[in-house]
Recover the amino acids of this structure.
């Protein structure tokens, strides 16, 4: 499983979650080239250890466990996963 970043992150990209993540699996970081062009941040499902540390850090409540996504946001599972597939 993984945690998933959903719609409220679009246009927000606060990055407090990036600093809270112990395994650096939330990208792009502010110091990465794609930060400006991406509309939201994404969690790497292969690296996420499901610790939940990012959840309370998000000011817009955009992060949820994959199996507890709010209704209507299931497409964000694909959106997060695919961002990393495209990177490889
Ligand atoms: Fe990182 Fe933990 Fe959040 Fe996964 S649940 S993205 S490991 S802080």
């Amino acid at each position: 499983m993984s945690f998933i970043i959903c719609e409220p992150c679009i246009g927000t990209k606060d990055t407090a979650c990036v600093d809270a993540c112990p395994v650096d699996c939330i990208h792009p970081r502010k110091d990465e080239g794609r930060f400006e062009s991406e509309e939201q941040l994404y969690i790497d499902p292969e690296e996420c250890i499901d610790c939940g540390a990012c959840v309370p850090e998000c000011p817009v409540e955009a992060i949820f466990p994959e199996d507890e996504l709010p209704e209507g946001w299931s497409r964000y599972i694909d959106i997060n996963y695919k961002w990393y597939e495209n990177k490889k």
Notes: The first strand starts at residue 3 and ends at 5.
